[in-house]
Amino acid sequence: MRIYEFEGKQVFARAGLAVPREVAVIRSPDEADALEVSGPVMVKAQVLVGGRGKAGGVVRARSGEEARAAVRRILGMDLKGYPVQAVLVEEALEFTGACYLGIIDNPATGNLVVMASASGGVDIEEVALSRPEAILRVELEDNPDRLPPEIAERIGAFLARDLGEGAALAAALADMAAGLYALYEAHDCRILEINPLLVTPSGPVAADAKMVLDDNALFRQGDLLAFLGIASRRHDVSEPTARERRAAQAGFAYLDLLPEDARREPGRIYVGLVPGGAGYGIFSIDEVRNVGDRVLGGRVTPLNFMDSGGGPTRKAVAEMFALLMDHPLCDLVITSRFGGISSCDTFIRGLVDCLRDRRAKGMRVVPVHGRMVGTDLPSARAFLEKARQETPEPLADLTMVVGNQKIMAEVIRDGLEAWVARQEVHA
Length: 427
What we know:
Blueprint: E1 2-3, H1 5-14, E2 22-26, H2 29-33, E3 41-45, E4 58-61, H3 64-74, E5 78-79, E6 82-83, E7 87-91, E8 97-105, E9 112-117, H4 124-130, E10 135-140, H5 149-163, H6 167-186, E11 189-200, E12 203-206, E13 210-213, H7 222-228, H8 242-250, E14 253-256, E15 269-274, H9 278-296, E16 300-302, E17 304-307, H10 314-325, E18 332-339, H11 344-360, E19 368-374, H12 377-390, E20 398-402, H13 408-426
Helix pairs in contact: 5-6, 8-10, 9-13, 10-11, 11-12
């Protein structure tokens, strides 16, 4: 579950991390008209998506009149498909530098990763691509409850050095890193970031807050949810990713395992999953990661969870595969259909429909490796054989084991090795 910036800053402040003074959170034009400010303020759209500033959702106002006009303009804006329903107004800070500090989990290893960069207030993914040396990345294999002091000090020294500052700021930044890590652990976060973390005359101040909680651990976060006034798990229109909304409209369950704006990490293989059910979907995530560790040294990242539900239609099956082929990171799709409630015949027809349609339209097609066994298997086998004869080109990158000749670990291994071989051919 994602937390809005103003809520994240309230959590930061409660934990003793410095944040700008909140003036108001405005949710209606009437509240905007009644806004009173003294001195310059920042007016910030509250949506759960990055890049608000570039889209016009973050502005600096020098007076009450400018602030009210900015709030009225931003309220109701559509930022990257997300409607703005609340606007944060907070004090504008004078600062001499800006940096980035964040904690995420590595989906390939399950370890926590602390990242820091003196290039704050900009797209950190762009920094990672253009200047990877500007980012300090520390992976903690044991996921300790508290950030080890030597790691906190290393982070503080790295940031202070690149900011051209001395020991006092390094110590303050180390404290900030330790405090952020403690919050991450205490609140079962998946992502916790400050970008930018401003260097002000009074010390580092969190000018932004990105906080994502683990849905599976919300039962432990009653105090946090009560503090924020959240009565139950949110289902904001702005909360799901675009792919999650698309899947919901098509009638099947889907969750992205990476942030919507995640960028490709060089040398890594990203695998989309179309399993036969929820339990098998969870198993598939683990199995892809485990096989990837053995075969490709941990360079494999599963992209999604999916549950096709009982008896999906042919059209729904086609959309499951199309959704992943439209994913910019997806290199390979692994699928398994154990047809009990669901028909193997319907499954293979939907998959073939997707491949034929995308090929005819000149759309992106990624290789598919999988197996199917169970209900309607003879008719599914017959359809697939006929389809290969009639339209071999659209199905050229489809490898489907029909029956129990291979376990899923072998199918995944074959898919990964075939993908690597293709890259070597085209290199």
